[in-house]
Amino acid sequence: MSATASTLITKKRHPLLGTEVRGVDLARPLDRETFREIEALWLSDLLLVFPEQRIADEAQIAFARNFGALEIHPSVSHRSSRNPEIYRISNLDERGAVLPRQSTQWQYMELTRLWHTDSSFREVPSKGSILHAIELPPEGGDTLFANMYAAYEALDTETRTRIRGLRVRHSHDHIIRQSETLSARADKGEYAELPPVVHPLVQRHPVTGRTSLFLSPHTMEGVEGMPDADGRALLDALIAHATSGDFTYRHQWQLDDVIMWDNRCTMHAVIPFDESRHRRELHRTTLIGDGPPIAA
Ligand code: OGA
Ligand code: MN
Fold this sequence. Notes:
Elements: E1 2-3, E2 9-12, E3 19-22, H1 32-45, E4 47-50, H2 57-65, E5 87-90, H3 104-111, E6 128-135, E7 143-147, H4 148-153, H5 157-163, E8 167-170, H6 172-177, H7 180-183, E9 197-200, E10 202-204, E11 211-213, E12 220-223, H8 228-242, E13 248-251, E14 258-262, E15 266-270, E16 281-287, E17 294-295
Parallel strand pairs: 3-4
Antiparallel strand pairs: 1-2, 2-3, 4-14, 5-16, 6-14, 6-16, 7-13, 7-15, 8-9, 8-12, 10-11, 10-17
């Protein structure tokens, strides 16, 4: 454990990303100094873990607002009815009953098992998220995070040169196609028709200026200007590289963990759990991105 200048006590959970932060009560307003320290740690360590934070949704929202404007998710079925800024990631309805497997919410929840970057199907993906564990299964349901700066830096020079400047097509339809249930029916969730977007494959972080790979396997359709098969092969090789284990931290949840990640230089995936027998509920607040990803 090492104490920073103020009262924060930090401990690395993984050499590449994931730092535990104690000595702050997220239910109380942050003073300027503590906010600055948390923000700096978030930018340098990519994923912060605040253990033992028994906070109400309203406090989570207030904490999140320190870092920017919050997204209201378009899909009513995912939102808390009391606080639209809270996106519920759960196999339970709001009364605590296990949802039917066919429900839209369940189907989207299952898709979080695929590696992804949040909202990569939007012009402006989210900046980051804050996630509070409210109910957890006895096994499974860990969340993996990959450091996409490290994944980029580990590529050989030839590959880096080859992929720099490439642009990737992302679409929400691609997510839907990966769900047998959602793709087979008319109700695909409350998304308006979302046109595909194009994002750089190699991006520059708007604040740190560091270069990272920008991958999101659940929305990536192909590489602009490349035959489909070649684009697919390139993306698949990069995905395998970035998720190989060298660049990933596995978060084993404890009740009342609050975690906060930078969505501009990480991706994540949930380890399956037995959703028909076990209960899992997390509440997310999502920071709206400042602008489209910047090509490196
Ligand atoms: C998310 C997500 C993570 C989890 O919150 O964006 O993909 O652990 N879920 O459920
Ligand atoms: Mn996600």
